[in-house]
Specification:
Number of helices: 5
Helix content: 25-40%
CATH class of the largest domain: Alpha Beta
Oligomer: single chain
CATH topology of the largest domain: Ubiquitin-like (UB roll)
Radius of gyration: 15 Å
Strand content: 5-15%
CATH architecture of the largest domain: Roll
């Protein structure tokens, strides 16, 4: 399978029916996407596929052939985080950190589609991402801050 991963062309020899999440973690050593529920419901495994949020635990490797996949690691660096990543840092939006990959990836994809959302639109866009620690208000503040700074 050939696809673009974080801006560069890659090839995977994994079984085409393998979940993309396993390929990202096991073959490419990318630890941003997390295994949460395995059912595509919690959002911890979210990546961007052609700039749209997608649940990597539910996407077979074959489905990414010829597409662009972006993980948390592809958004920014420690020295130069993306606007969304920086907003999450400034708002201290992580507690345990398990959901943050999904929150940042979902927010990034959403802000690419809607760079000037209302608070209600943000809440609706993030509705299917779960955080068990209760940092929802900080996450919301971080996304609002990122949107105010121009989104992504």
């Amino acid at each position: 399978m050939h696809f673009r991963l974080n801006g560069r062309p890659v090839e995977s020899a994994f079984d085409p029916t393998s979940p993309l999440l396993y390929v990202l973690r096991d073959e490419f050593a990318l630890n941003g996407p997390k295994f949460g529920c395995g059912l595509g419901e919690c959002g911890a495994c979210t990546v961007l596929m052609d700039d749209a949020p997608a649940r990597s635990c539910q996407i077979p490797l074959a489905a990414v052939q010829g597409h662009a996949v972006t993980t948390l690691e592809g958004l920014g660096t420690l020295e130069h985080p993306s606007v969304v990543q920086q907003a999450f840092i400034e708002e201290q939006a992580a507690q345990c950190g398990y959901c943050i990959n999904g929150m940042i990836m979902q927010a990034t994809g959403f802000l690419k589609q809607n760079p000037h959302p209302t608070r209600q639109e943000i809440i609706q866009a993030m509705d299917n991402n779960m955080c068990r620690c209760g940092t929802h208000l900080r996450i919301l503040a971080a996304i609002e801050k990122a949107a105010a700074k121009g989104g992504v």
